[in-house]
Write a structure and sequence with these properties.
This protein is an alpha+beta fold. It has a single domain, classed as Jelly Rolls, CATH 2.60.120. It contains four helices and 16 strands. Strands 1, 2, 3, 4, 7, 12, 14 and 16 form an eight-stranded antiparallel β-sheet that branches. A four-stranded antiparallel β-sheet has the order 5-13-8-11, with no helix packed on it. The protein has a two-stranded antiparallel ribbon with strand order 6-15. Helix 2 packs antiparallel against helix 3. The protein binds 2-oxoglutaric acid.
Length: 276
């Protein structure tokens, strides 16, 4: 049986992803994946990677912990990239015949964390042009809707690119420049003008969203429930390396790509179809 035959995705899901820019796929990953990834994430928090970021100022309750590239350090994360249904889900949503793994991003909000994830969309952080870029936001804990990431429905089709900012507020900012960039609108002030998507979500479910879909997240008001989420980023064959002026995030380099190149390389492995 091919991976695709077993996918928990219908044509209606794919059409909704294209229209709305974010969907929740229920029961996409078996409990064994969740157990293995939880262990890897907890190990990573004990011994983080070189790009770790703490977004909670000292003295504030909780912890908003961010790290990257777990697939390079943890066997379970690497296995998820190459062996789980994730690559096939990403490929079908993008309508892609090739799937390249771009990077991963761990976002943990411990109980009591007050820091919001600011409104943003992801593609302006990346040196990538093209439409085939999807993220899979995988919670490793049950997440209530009032803690879940919120998505502005259809914003990936606005044709707008917003300047990227670090999630930690009040510090230095990312200085990526591009003539397309404008400031992120005050989405909270204009809530009545938009439709929002967010879900009560269980481990095994996953949210898939387009790299231009605006999103943000509240803190974690729960006094007892962790909010561990691991987001993996996937590209299709239309994605091309692009030069950017300033600092991209995450700062992944050493790939040797030139503007216009397809992404597949050692740092961004092609996972479907398997090369070599
Ligand atoms: O987990 C969060 O708080 C935000 C997630 C996010 O911004 C992302 O996955 O791009």
């Amino acid at each position: 049986m091919s991976h695709e035959a077993a996918l928990p995705l219908t044509d209606a899901d794919i059409a909704r992803y294209r229209d709305d820019g974010a969907i929740c796929i229920r029961g996409a990953f078996a409990p064994d994946w969740i157990e293995r990834l939880r262990a890897a994430i907890d190990a990573d928090m004990q011994a983080p990677g070189p790009m770790v970021r703490i977004n909670t100022p000292q003295g504030n309750p909780g912890l908003f912990f961010v790290d990257f590239q777990l697939w390079q350090r943890h066997d379970a994360c690497r296995a998820f990239v190459f062996e789980s249904p994730a690559a096939d889900i990403a490929g079908r949503l993008m309508g892609a015949s090739e799937v390249v793994y771009y990077h991963d991003h761990l976002l943990v909000k411990e109980p009591g964390t007050v820091e919001r994830t600011p409104w943003h969309h992801d593609q302006p952080y990346y040196p990538i042009d093209g439409r085939q870029i999807v993220s899979l936001w995988l919670p490793l804990d049950a997440v209530a809707r009032d803690v879940c990431v919120e998505y502005v429905r259809g914003s990936h089709r606005w044709g707008r690119w917003f300047a990227p900012k670090f999630f930690r507020q009040g510090g230095v900012n990312l200085q990526v420049q591009d003539p397309r960039f404008e400031d992120v609108p005050d989405i909270d002030a204009e809530r009545s003008q938009h439709a929002f998507l967010s879900w009560d979500i269980e481990p095994g479910d996953v949210i898939a969203f387009h790299a231009l879909t605006l999103h943000g997240a509240p803190g974690n008001r729960s006094s007892s429930r962790r909010r561990r989420a691991w987001a993996t980023r996937w590209c299709g064959e239309d994605a091309r390396y692009a030069s950017r002026v300033g600092q991209i995030s995450p700062p992944l380099d050493g790939h040797g790509l030139q503007p216009g190149d397809k992404l597949a390389c050692d740092l961004f492995p092609r996972v479907r179809p398997i090369s070599g």
